Amino acid sequence: MGKPKDRGDAKGHNVEVHDHTEVRANEYDKTDDRPFSINCEWDIKQTQQFSDDGTNTYFWRAHTVTVLIVMLCVLVYVGAFEQPHSDREYNTKRGLIACILVFLLFGVTQTRDGPFKRPHPAFWRLILCLSVVYELSLIFLLFQTVDNARLLLKYLDEDLGTPLPEQSYGEDCRLYTPGHPKGAFHNFLEKCDVFLPSHFFGWWAKALILRDYWLITVISVLFEVLEYSLEHQLPNFSECWWDHWIMDVLVCNGLGAYCGMKTVEYLGNKPYHWRGLWNIPSYSGKLKRMAEQFTPYSWTSYNWKATKSLRRWLAVCGIAAMFLIAELNLFYLKFILWIPPPHFLMQARLALYLGIGAVALNETFRYMDDPTCKRFGQQAWVVSAIVATEVLICVKFGWETLSLPLPLHVAAFWSLFFGIWFVWTVWNFWPSIIGGFRTRREADDKTSDVNSSSERSKQE
Question: Can you tell me where the transmembrane regions are (predicted)?
């Protein structure tokens, strides 16, 4: 991508932007004394007019006609020249893949751009279309029975469709067991598996998405509390106390979140200079510029301001709840549909969630913070639908598991938790709540007065 060479002023004239334009964060303030200053990428249209300097024009065109011609040529070959196959299962799979590919081609060339321009707008349009395909697949599963759903997954991989062995990590919580044939620290070493680096990199990525240290910490702690609360439903939620709070919260989640926030801090302070690829004289500079195509175009600042108003407070609590529900859905889906954790379906879901989550959070913040934004973002809309559909699948297929009653002490804890949350919310936002009631009542009174006046006019 080239530098923004020219932009239009308020009257539509072109204003020159020099080759070494420095793109800084919108409303970036170095005096921000908040811990782990929250800097994030904002909608490019709000910060820097996006344009091409002429060096990479070909790569930034949609190529709608070219894509259409290539697609039709492939379909003509299949329809007119290819020998038909008699294998029904092969034809079904091939036809479904072709339908998905045609939809993805349409989406990549025709849907509107998202908030991010790197590495290419088409990449984020592809992410959006993949999320729609995933949502359609979930809806299809929702209309099946649990046995049919497991059988459909078996068509993707013959190893699926068999019950998973129950695994509990909290049977023996001793850190030191001298004389044990597997070693004195075998309990600790057995829990240092592939989930350790996945936890670390997962929370590093979540820090880049949320970009708020305190919100990340709250989600991390609450998820461990949820594991305590639901271990009577899912056996693998049962872990030792040091596995919950030391290995997960402090080491993996905490260190990953800290590194992620330091990355956010670095990207927020970094100046961004963009030049056209062919304006760079050296080959090493060209290669560096190509590598930088996979870095942010700009890194701008916003603040969630969770306690600014009741609306923002409820929105931020809703974001935290969506994160927690999406995490729980992963464990319930693999338990109900018999999908082992290392399977590529689980890995693909996690990778997709990272992409769609980054865009959805950006769109959600703009919807909350920008008064000119009147429409809920397209990716945020799809993510909300995905999380809700996953919950419905878990409820429909795993009701016997989900309906297991909470232990008394767990139910008491969550009742106290939500009670304190409700009381604090009412106490902190009471003036705005009363003001909202008064405003609505005054509006109703004005409406009734207008209706009464119109009725009297008609009678006269």
Answer: 58-80, 92-110, 122-143, 313-338, 350-368, 380-399, 411-430
